[in-house]
Amino acid sequence: MLLFVTACAGGGAGDGDGKGKKDGAGKAGDNQASQAVVSIAPKDEAKNIATSGALKIGADKGRLTSVKVEDTKGNEVEGKITGDGKSWEPAHHLGAATKYKVHAIAKDSEGRESAKDTTFTTLVPQNTFVSYFTPEDGSTVGVGMPVSLRFSRGITAPEAVERAVKVTAEPSVPVEGHWFGNDRLDFRPEKYWAAGTKVTLKLNLDGVEGRPGVYGKQTKTVRFTVGRSQVSVVDAEAHTMTVKRDGKVFKTIPITAGAPSTTTYNGQMVISEKYRVTRMNGATVGFGGEYDIKDVPHAMRLSTSGTFIHGNYWAGAGTFGSANVSHGCVGLRDVRGGWDKEAPAAWFFNNSILGDVVVVKNSHDKQIQPDNGLNGWNMSWAEWKK
Fold it and tell me: Where in the sequence is the active site (predicted)?
């Protein structure tokens, strides 16, 4: 027993000879500090930091290997380390009035790591903007429905705002945005959506500086589904409307379009609103006191300027299919009160959804402007992408 203990002790004593010191020196060398230095701007505990351009992370005498930036709720900020490992920047703006923590690691040429941790808080905006979006979350719409955003303030930094909006489709199809003025941004594919498409709109406007000193305050995801395909073609000369469902003729309906002095716009128009009954007053659309009908049945809006496709109970039945007598709308035979479900206007109303397309042709009028309603389809794809 004594011999065994002595043998063990002798092994430990050997650590004190020249060979043992050499091994110990090697390990001590491995404990040298990393030469890599991580730099982070803004400085630790900084306040009132800009949401764009202020966050920068770099490495000197080494390469960044890991960067994590997250808010107090654990939401990570997307970003990318450059190919040379010298810097990292966020992929998009930061949220306003938000505290972030940063953890970054770098390695030197010997593989030794160093790290740095900081926190900072972004600015609290005094002026903000939001977007009002169409269509609604969870809705089912027609194949012509664009994604349309109207902003509560005029935008002078459109590129920054557009980068903060993402529209995707399943099945996938290229979707592009187009600005109408400085307060409206619409998105659409080259052609009508395919029936059954699922579309997702992601708004990441919180912290975007849309104009000097004015920041977005909206983060939201909107999802909607494209229903069956319905495109109806109004022929103003033939006084008919041909309803096509999924590419096949579904029904042909006699109509009346705009009279010679008040013609109907030509072009592709999208149903943007539906009313079982509404008031139509000529004074609101530039016709003075020519008409004021308080109970127009089965009305569906096609333009912002007042073009509707609606029921008409005041014209004689023989008018439909033979004459154009309206003030620019497309009229379908109906009854006062809209109680007759067999009337053409009632049938069309009940078989239409927001986003369905109504195309008017052969009218002695110009083509409708793309921003007059949800009617961007009247622009070529090349124009739309400019």
Answer: 310 (proton donor/acceptor), 329 (nucleophile)
Mind listing the pLDDT tens digit for each residue in 27-42? Answer: 445 689 999 999 999 9
* 24 assigned to some structural domain: no
**Residue 56 carries which side chain, given as an amino acid letter?**
K
Could you say which of 93, 178, 310, 327 is catalytic? 310
CA distance 119 to 101: 4
154, 246: one domain: no
In a domain, 234, yes or no: yes
Residue span of the structural domain in which 178 resides: 127-226
Residues 235 and 364 in one domain: yes
pTM as predicted: 0.86
What is the number of structural domains in the chain? 3
218 touches 236 (CB < 8 A): no
Question: Is 8 noted as a catalytic residue in this protein?
Answer: no
User: Is there a single domain that holds both residue 116 and residue 158?
Assistant: no
pLDDT (tens digit, 9 = 90+) per residue, 328-364? 999 999 999 999 999 999 999 999 999 999 999 999 9
Tell me the DSSP string of 329-343: SEEEE--TTS--TTS
| Residue closest to 380 by CA, chosen among 143, 176, 170, 78 | 176
The catalytic residue among 93, 239, 327, 329 is 329
DSSP string, 104-137: EEEE-TTS-EEEEEEEEEE---SEEE-EEEES-T
How many CB atoms are located within 10 Å of the residue 191 CB? 10
CATH of the domain at 206: 2.60.40.3710
Catalytic residue status for 310: yes
